[in-house]
Design brief:
Tetracycline Repressor, domain 2, Arc Repressor Mutant, subunit A, mainly alpha, DNA-binding, homodimer
DNA sequence: GTCTATAATTAGATAGAC
DNA sequence: GTCTATCTAATTATAGAC
């Protein structure tokens, strides 16, 4: 293997380990030593590839959001002004299924949103704004002129309703006895959220 | 002031500071030195009153949940089998208003739910289970025989939809330009969530 | 009851050998 | 490109003076 290949392989393994650690433990509780260990290398090598913990965190964010492009398909606009209800429901079901299968995305954003600092602003500017604008556009089509004013509430309401169950899977198991990550419960949750937003 | 009074005052200030720090920064990123500093005492005194960081965390949890008793009023059952729709909506609005004014509750639970450890289990057994059972009972009245199976989805769906906007207030300001903690936006969110759950 | 001093551990970042 | 060794700073917890 060439040095360039070796380089890319090591970086990829470090970023994978960083994504898992940041999503699971959060930024503060994650240690670069532990992340390096998960990737099978030493901490010294980690700082060779990523000069600071912040730089590693940004690489992890890029990796997480790269898995999202293109964004989950918005419901097709079938000629008329109004979006077809069942198509909107299916889009929401798809969103819930995605949240269930990628809990690291929500966990990562939630962790960054904790403090009003440079990392949050970078995440908003680099990855979140474009996705929010897409949802706001959808809200405008669903709610007409009121779209702009309901967009924030719809965005956080939908995201919270869709994602919290999977972000708190451990709590849910302890509290209710059910495992929310099973296909059956993912589908139940998708149906509930879809029916709540589009009755 | 007697020593007993002094003791209680110092403990109360330490617990108040701990609640703020654990909710704002999370357990790991909170330091006992900083918490002691916020309370105006030294770290040595903190460990005199609370032998470990874990013990302080449990005292903070007790304080947070003490503010919740009695639980937010459930809608009155007006004679019939079915709960009155408008009363159910008002109960949900009250829940959203409470979430908006006490973001530390959601932040604290969310932080504990991150890891499947002893702290999470203690929190579930000591404070969360009774509250969940109340919601599950409400679900049974709203949804009849299906209540038991939808209760977990309803609980996390409602909690997420109601609370996330305020838990991520800093992100919301950066992302949308609005401040979700204003009375106006709290009411908008309350109305949206109430109308979603009880159309 | 409160403080200062410190032990023991761990963190992120740096330097240099290979 | 990778590793070992080390620096500096911060952490929780402990011990003892007052």
């Amino acid at each position: 293997m060439s040095r360039a290949e070796q380089r890319e392989q090591t970086r990829a393994r470090l970023v994978d380990a960083a994504v898992a650690s940041f999503a699971e433990l959060g930024f503060d509780a994650s240690s670069t030593r532990d992340i390096a260990g998960r990737a099978g290398v030493t901490q010294g090598l980690l700082t060779y590839h990523f000069a600071s913990k912040d730089e590693l965190w940004r690489a992890a964010a890029d990796r997480i959001f790269a898995a999202l492009d293109p964004p989950p398909a918005a419901p097709e606009d079938r000629g008329g002004d109004r979006v077809d209800d069942e198509a909107a429901r299916e889009a929401i079901r798809g969103y819930v299924r995605f949240a269930a299968r990628h809990p690291e995305l929500f966990a990562f954003v939630l962790d960054a949103s904790r403090r009003d600092d440079d990392r949050l602003r970078w995440l908003v500017d680099t990855h979140l704004r474009a996705r929010y604008d897409a949802v706001a556009g959808l809200a405008a089509r669903l709610y007409g002129d009121d779209g702009a004013s309901v967009a924030p509430h719809l965005y956080y309401g939908l995201t919270g309703a869709a994602s919290l169950l999977f972000a708190q899977a451990a709590e849910c198991r302890a509290l209710t006895g059910i495992d929310p990550t099973t296909d059956d419960h993912v589908e139940r949750h998708a149906e509930l959220v879809a029916r709540l937003l589009v009755p």
